[in-house]
C-alpha cells in the first residue's frame, strides 16, 4: 500500500501498486429509466411518493439520477417547498458554546473526498453553527458533521442543506436527534434513546433471523449490537462492532467507563468524584506493534496515548501551526544513532527542534516526523495544541479554550470547583478547579499513569494547594509531574517547601542556587524554605530533580522520583518579598502521576543525528492499530492538467459509447455477453485498437520452455537461488498480446485517489522492454464501469497502464523485476514530482481476502522506494490497522538507472531486496503474512491533486511520463505444493476465482457477488435511507450478519478480541464515499 510520511501520517488515502480503488458513483441510468424519473418529477415528486410508494421505492433502489437527487431528498424529508423563516445568515455567523467544537471537527470531515475543499468546510461550519444556535437545547455533537457534510456534497446549496439537516434532526416522525442527545437534551453516553431503541430492534432481528448465531454470541458473552468504535455519537448511530460487553475497542485496547477509580493507588491518589474517571487499558504489545488510544481534546489540546512495541516507530503528523509535546510514561525513546529528524524537503539531517532541556517535555513541531521506541518499547502521552492558543488569555472558566472538550466520555470532563470535594480547606470563592482523570493501565491491568487537569486563577494561591506524597524526601515511592498547559503569569511555577534541617543550612541565598534552574527563593517560615521553578507551557517540574542527601541541594535526577515532600503550583508572579502580586489570568496544568519504577527516561531524552547514522531507518511509518487524523496536504494540482480536467468534466460518457457501438464485432460482444461481465455497455472492449507493434507479438506461452513459463531468453543463464525454482520469465523482447496471452492481461481499473484510468493502449513493447506511459487522455474512450474494480470509476484526466496476471495463481516464491522509474520531466531525472511505479502481488480488495505485497518507486526523491505488506478480510478500505509500509532507498537515481527490485514471500516472512541487498524483513504480527494466492501486477499511476503519496511536488509533473521494465522473473518456493498451475488452472478454487475480472475482454466469468449484489449493480444507499427511513439499516445489518454467519459461528471471542463488522455501513459509506456500488 503506502508509506506515510509525517505530513501524511494517518491519512485515510492510500496507494498500493495501488489497489484500494473506490467503487463510487451513481449507476448509469438508461434513457427509459430517466424518462420515468422525469415523468415522476413532472407530476410532483411528493404527490407521486404518496400515490405510488411501492413503485417509488423500487425505483429508488435502482438509484436516483443525479440531476433529480436533491429534489427527491427534499421531498423525502417533507421539505420540498415551504422553508421556515429564519435569519440563517445571523445564525450561521454568530458564535455559540458549540462553535469551538465544530471548528475542530469540520476539517476532519470527508478528508479523502477531493471536492470537500476548504470552501465546503466553511459552509459546513456555518450550517452546523446555525443549527446549534437555532436549537440550543440540542446544540452540536460529533457525527452531525458527516450528515450535514453529505447534504452539502449533494445539494451544493448551503442554506437548503441547513433546512434539510434541521428537518432530519428534528422531525417528529424520523428525526435523528435521539441518536445524538440524551432525554434531557444532554449528550450522555448512557442515554441516546433512539440509538438504544435501534440496538434493541437489531437484537430482536438477530434472534428472529439468525437464532443459531445468536446462541453462539450468548455462549461467547458477546452482544451482537453493542455500540462500537470511537465512543462518539457518529459511530454509535452508524457503525457497530461485535465486541465484549463493557469494552470500547477503538484501537487495540479497551476503554471502560463507570469503573471506580481504585483508592489503593500508590500512596493515596485523591479519590474524588471516582464515577467520572475514564480507564484506558493498553493492548498486548506482542500483538500490536503500534497502538493509539482514542483522542480527547482537553481545553483545546488534543491528547492521546501511544504504545510502541520494541523498536517500533510512530509518525507524529504535527502541522506547522501546532506545537506538540511528548511525555514518556514507560520505556525509552531512543537517543543518538537511533532517531533522526526529517526536514521539509524529506532529507534527514541534524536539526535541533529545541535545545536539550530536561526541564520540559520533549517539544515537537512539524519538522520532527517520527519517534522510535527502544528495546523495551515505549508508552507516552502525545499532546498537540494550536500555537495561537498560547496567546489567548483565560480570564473566565466559561470561555474557550477552557471549555473546548471532546472525545470518548467527554461528558465526564466538566470543570468543577475544588471546594465541592474539600469545602473545609477550599472556600467556594477560591478559583481552583478540577477535571476528571484518565487512568492508564497496561494489558495486565497494572497502573502506569494517572492524568488529571487543574486550573487556578492568579493570586488564588493557597496553602491548601500544597500536598505531600512521600512523607520524607528520602522516601521517594511516588512519581509526579506537573506540566503547564496555559500560563496565566510570567512566573507561574512549581513551589516546593523543604525542611530547614535538610536545605536551609546549605543554601543561604538565591545566588547560591544553580543558575540554570532560575529558582525564586524566599523564606516561608521558621521551619521550611520555599523556592519556585518557573514553568512555561510544556515545562514540567519533574521527575527531573531531587534533593542530594549528601549536601541537601537540588540535583537533576532523570530516573528518580520527586523526593521533596510538600509542593504545589503557584500562579504568581512572586514579588521581591516573596508575596504574590495582583490578580490576573488562569493557569491550566495537567498532573502526571506514576510509580517511578515503571519509568526509565534516558538523559538526554532525545537527540538528533545526521544521515550517516540512519542507514536503512528512514521514516519508519509503522501501522497503528487505529489511524489518526488526516494531516493537512497541499491541494495544488498539476497546472498542466487543468484544461484536461475541464474538458473531461464537459464530456458525456453516453455520447462516447454511442459512437463506439458500431465498431463492435459480433465475436467480441458475444464473448462478453456470454460471461455476463458486469457492464451492460461492454462495447468498449474492442474500441480504439492500438497501433500495430513494430514487430510481431510473441507467441503465447501456453506451455513451458523447458521448465520455465513465459518468454525466457534461451541464450541467458539465469541466477539460481537455494530453495527456489525458476518458474516464469518475461524478457519483453517481443510484444505480448494482452488479450490472448494465457498468463498476462491488462486492467481497466483506476484508483479512487489517483488521477489515471488504466487502459491497454498505454502498455507498449519496444527496444526489448515493456513501457508503461502516463499522459493526458488523447481521446481513448473508457466506460464508467470497470471489471478490475468491480464497480464504477469516475472520469480521470490521465490514462496509464497496468499489466497483471489473469488469475490469483501465484503465492510463495521470489519475485524480481528490473525497472527504471519515469522522469518527472522528460530528459531531466533530477526533478522531483509525483508518480508511483510498481511491481506487486495483489488479491481482491473490497471482497473476501485482501492480500498485497508491494515494491513502489515514488517521485518524491530520486532514490525513494516504499515496501508494503497488507492483509485483511472482508475489508474494502485501507487503514493503518491492516498494512505495514516502510520507506527505503536505492543507490543512485532510480529514474536514470535500471535497478533490480524484488521480494521473497514465504509462509513465515517477507523479505525485500534492492539490487540484491536486503532492505527489509517482515515477520508477521500486524499485519500477518499474506496466505492466499494472488495476481502479479505492474503499473504506473499519479496520485491526484492532493498528492498524499508519491511526492508532494506534483506541480512539476510533465507528460508523457514513462516507466520501463527490462525483465520480470518468478521463482517458486520449493515448499509450495499448490500454486501456480499456469495453463490448466486446476489449482484454482472458487475463492481464487471470486470476482477476479480484469477487463471486459478477458473471457473470464465474474463468479460471485459483492455485498449480495451482482458485479456493478449499483445501489445508492443514501437514496434508500433518505426515502425509506433509517429502519432499512437494521435489515442491512442482519443481511451482512447472514453473509458472515459461517465465519462468525467458527470464531471464539476471547476477552480482548474484537471483530469489527460495519453492519450499520453508514459511517463507512459517509466518511469514505457518498455513493455505494
From TrEMBL:
GO biological process: carbohydrate metabolic process
Highest taxon listed in the record's lineage: Eukaryota
Region (Disordered): 1-31
Domain Rab-GAP TBC: 63-258
A GO MF label: GTPase activator activity
Record-linked SUPFAM superfamilies: Concanavalin A-like lectins/glucanases, Ypt/Rab-GAP domain of gyp1p
Comp. bias intervals (Low complexity): 1-16
Chain ranges of the GH16 domain: 713-976
PANTHER family tied to this protein: GTPASE ACTIVATING PROTEIN AND CENTROSOME-ASSOCIATED, ISOFORM B, RAB GTPASE-ACTIVATING PROTEIN 1-LIKE
Protein name: Beta-glucanase (1,3-1,4-beta-D-gluca n 4-glucanohydrolase) (Endo-beta-1,3-1,4 glucanase) (Laminarinase) (Lichenase)
Species: Cladocopium goreaui
Amino acid at each position: 500500500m503506502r508509506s506515510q510520511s509525517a505530513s501524511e501520517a494517518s491519512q485515510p488515502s492510500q496507494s498500493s501498486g495501488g489497489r484500494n480503488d473506490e467503487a463510487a458513483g451513481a449507476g448509469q441510468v438508461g434513457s427509459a429509466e430517466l424518462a420515468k424519473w422525469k415523468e415522476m418529477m413532472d407530476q410532483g415528486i411528493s404527490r407521486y411518493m404518496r400515490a405510488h410508494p411501492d413503485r417509488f421505492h423500487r425505483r429508488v433502489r435502482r438509484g436516483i439520477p443525479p440531476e433529480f437527487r436533491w429534489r427527491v431528498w427534499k421531498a423525502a424529508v417533507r421539505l420540498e417547498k415551504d422553508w421556515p423563516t429564519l435569519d440563517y445568515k445571523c445564525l450561521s455567523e454568530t458564535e455559540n458554546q458549540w462553535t469551538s467544537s465544530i471548528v475542530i471537527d469540520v476539517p476532519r470531515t470527508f478528508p479523502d473526498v477531493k471536492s470537500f475543499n476548504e470552501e465546503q468546510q466553511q459552509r459546513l461550519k456555518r450550517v452546523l453553527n446555525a443549527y446549534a444556535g437555532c436549537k440550543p437545547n440540542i446544540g452540536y455533537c460529533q457525527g452531525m458533521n458527516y450528515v450535514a457534510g453529505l447534504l452539502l456534497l449533494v445539494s451544493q446549496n448551503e442554506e437548503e442543506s441547513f433546512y434539510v439537516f434541521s428537518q432530519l434532526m428534528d422531525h417528529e416522525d424520523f428525526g435523528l436527534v435521539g441518536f445524538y442527545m440524551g432525554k434531557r437534551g444532554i449528550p450522555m453516553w448512557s442515554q441516546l434513546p433512539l440509538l438504544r431503541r435501534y440496538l434493541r430492534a437489531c437484537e430482536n432481528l438477530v434472534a428472529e433471523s439468525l437464532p443459531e448465531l445468536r446462541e453462539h454470541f450468548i455462549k461467547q458473552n458477546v452482544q451482537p449490537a453493542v455500540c462500537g468504535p470511537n465512543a462518539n455519537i457518529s459511530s454509535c448511530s452508524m457503525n457497530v462492532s461485535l465486541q465484549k460487553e463493557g469494552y470500547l475497542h477503538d484501537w487495540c485496547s479497551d476503554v471502560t467507563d463507570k469503573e471506580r477509580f481504585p483508592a489503593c493507588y500508590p500512596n493515596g491518589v485523591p479519590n474524588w468524584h471516582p464515577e467520572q474517571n475514564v480507564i484506558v487499558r493498553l493492548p498486548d504489545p506482542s500483538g500490536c506493534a503500534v497502538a493509539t488510544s482514542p483522542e480527547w481534546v482537553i481545553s483545546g489540546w488534543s491528547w492521546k496515548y501511544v504504545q510502541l512495541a520494541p523498536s517500533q516507530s510512530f509518525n507524529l503528523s504535527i502541522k506547522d501551526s501546532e506545537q506538540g509535546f511528548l511525555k514518556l510514561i514507560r520505556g525509552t525513546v531512543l537517543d543518538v544513532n537511533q532517531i533522526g529528524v526529517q526536514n521539509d524537503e524529506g532529507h534527514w539531517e541534524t536539526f535541533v527542534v529545541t535545545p536539550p532541556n530536561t526541564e520540559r517535555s520533549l517539544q515537537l513541531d512539524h519538522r520532527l516526523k517520527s519517534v522510535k521506541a527502544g528495546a523495551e518499547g515505549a508508552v507516552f502521552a502525545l499532546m498537540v495544541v494550536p500555537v495561537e492558543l498560547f496567546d489567548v488569555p483565560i480570564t473566565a472558566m466559561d470561555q474557550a479554550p477552557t471549555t473546548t472538550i471532546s472525545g470518548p466520555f467527554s461528558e465526564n470532563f466538566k470543570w468543577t470547583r475544588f471546594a465541592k470535594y474539600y469545602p473545609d480547606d477550599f472556600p467556594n470563592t477560591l478559583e481552583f478547579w478540577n477535571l476528571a482523570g484518565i487512568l492508564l493501565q497496561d494489558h495486565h491491568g497494572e497502573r502506569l499513569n494517572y492524568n488529571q487537569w487543574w486550573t487556578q486563577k492568579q493570586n488564588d494561591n493557597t496553602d491548601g494547594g500544597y500536598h505531600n506524597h512521600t512523607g520524607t524526601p528520602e522516601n521517594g515511592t511516588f512519581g509526579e509531574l506537573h506540566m503547564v498547559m496555559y500560563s496565566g503569569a510570567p512566573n507561574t511555577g512549581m513551589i516546593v517547601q523543604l525542611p530547614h534541617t535538610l536545605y536551609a543550612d546549605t543554601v543561604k541565598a538565591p545566588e547560591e542556587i544553580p543558575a540554570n534552574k532560575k529558582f525564586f527563593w524566599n523564606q516561608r517560615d521558621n521551619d521550611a524554605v520555599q523556592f519556585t521553578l518557573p514553568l512555561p507551557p510544556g515545562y514540567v517540574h519533574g521527575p527531573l530533580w531531587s534533593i542530594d542527601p549528601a549536601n541537601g541541594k537540588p540535583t537533576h535526577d532523570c530516573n528518580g522520583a520527586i523526593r521533596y515532600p510538600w509542593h504545589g503550583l503557584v500562579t504568581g508572579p512572586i514579588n521581591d518579598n516573596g508575596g504574590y502580586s495582583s490578580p490576573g489570568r488562569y493557569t491550566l496544568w495537567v498532573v502526571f502521576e506514576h510509580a517511578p519504577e515503571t519509568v526509565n527516561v534516558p538523559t538526554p531524552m532525545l537527540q538528533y543525528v545526521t544521515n550517516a547514522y540512519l542507514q536503512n531507518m528512514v521514516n519508519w511509518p509503522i501501522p497503528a492499530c487505529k489511524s489518526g487524523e488526516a494531516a493537512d496536504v497541499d491541494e495544488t494540482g498539476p497546472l498542466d492538467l487543468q484544461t484536461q480536467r475541464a474538458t473531461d468534466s464537459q464530456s458525456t460518457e453516453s455520447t462516447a459509447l454511442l459512437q463506439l457501438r458500431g465498431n463492435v464485432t459480433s465475436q467480441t460482444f458475444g464473448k462478453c455477453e456470454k460471461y455476463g461481465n458486469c457492464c451492460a455497455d461492454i462495447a468498449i472492449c474492442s474500441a480504439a485498437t492500438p497501433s500495430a507493434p513494430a514487430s510481431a507479438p510473441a507467441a503465447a506461452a501456453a506451455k513451458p520452455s523447458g521448465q520455465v513459463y513465459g518468454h525466457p531468453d534461451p541464450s541467458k543463464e539465469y541466477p539460481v537461488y537455494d530453495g527456489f525454482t525458476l518458474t516464469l520469465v518475461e524478457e519483453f523482447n517481443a510484444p505480448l498480446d494482452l488479450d490472448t496471452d494465457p498468463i498476462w492481461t491488462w486492467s481497466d481499473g483506476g484508483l479512487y485517489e489517483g488521477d489515471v484510468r488504466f487502459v491497454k493502449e498505454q502498455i507498449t513493447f519496444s527496444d526489448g522492454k515493456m513501457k508503461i506511459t502516463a499522459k493526458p487522455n488523447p481521446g481513448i474512450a473508457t466506460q464508467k464501469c470497470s471489471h478490475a474494480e468491480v464497480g464504477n470509476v469516475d472520469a480521470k484526466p490521465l490514462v496509464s497502464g497496468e499489466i497483471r496476471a489473469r488469475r490469483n495463481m501465484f503465492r510463495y516464491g521470489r519475485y524480481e523485476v528490473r525497472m527504471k522509474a519515469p522522469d518527472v520531466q522528460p530528459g531531466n531525472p533530477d526533478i522531483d514530482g509525483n508518480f508511483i511505479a510498481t511491481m506487486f502481488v495483489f488479491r481482491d480488495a473490497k471482497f473476501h481476502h485482501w492480500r498485497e505485497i508491494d515494491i513502489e518507486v515514488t517521485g518524491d526523491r530520486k532514490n525513494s522506494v516504499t515496501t508494503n505488506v497488507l492483509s485483511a478480510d472482508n475489508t474494502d478500505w485501507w487503514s493503518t490497522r491492516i498494512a505495514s509500509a516502510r520507506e527505503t532507498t536505492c543507490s543512485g537515481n532510480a529514474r536514470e538507472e535500471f535497478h533490480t527490485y524484488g521480494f521473497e514471500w514465504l509462509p513465515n516472512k517477507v523479505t525485500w531486496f534492492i539490487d540484491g541487498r536486503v532492505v527489509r524483513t517482515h515477520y508477521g504480527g500486524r499485519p500477518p503474512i499474506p496466505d492466499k494466492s494472488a495476481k502479479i501486477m505492474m503499473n504506473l499511476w499519479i496520485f491526484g491533486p492532493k498528492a498524499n503519496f508519491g511526492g508532494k511536488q506534483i506541480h512539476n509533473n510533465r507528460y508523457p511520463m514513462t516507466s520501463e521494465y527490462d525483465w520480470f522473473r518468478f521463482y517458486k518456493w520449493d515448499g509450495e505444493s499448490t500454486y501456480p498451475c499456469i495453463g490448466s488452472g486446476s489449482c484454482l478454487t472458487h475463492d481464487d476465482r471470486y470476482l477476479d475480472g480484469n477487463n471486459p475482454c478477458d473471457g473470464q466469468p465474474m463468479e460471485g457477488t459483492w455485498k449480495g449484489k451482482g458485479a456493478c449493480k449499483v445501489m445508492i444507499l443514501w437514496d434508500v435511507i433518505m426515502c425509506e427511513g433509517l429502519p432499512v439499516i437494521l435489515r442491512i445489518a442482519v443481511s451482512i450478519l447472514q453473509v458472515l454467519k459461517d465465519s462468525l459461528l467458527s470464531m471464539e471471542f476471547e476477552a480482548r478480541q474484537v471483530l469489527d463488522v460495519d453492519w450499520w455501513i453508514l459511517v463507512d459509506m459517509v466518511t469514505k464515499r457518498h455513493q455505494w456500488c
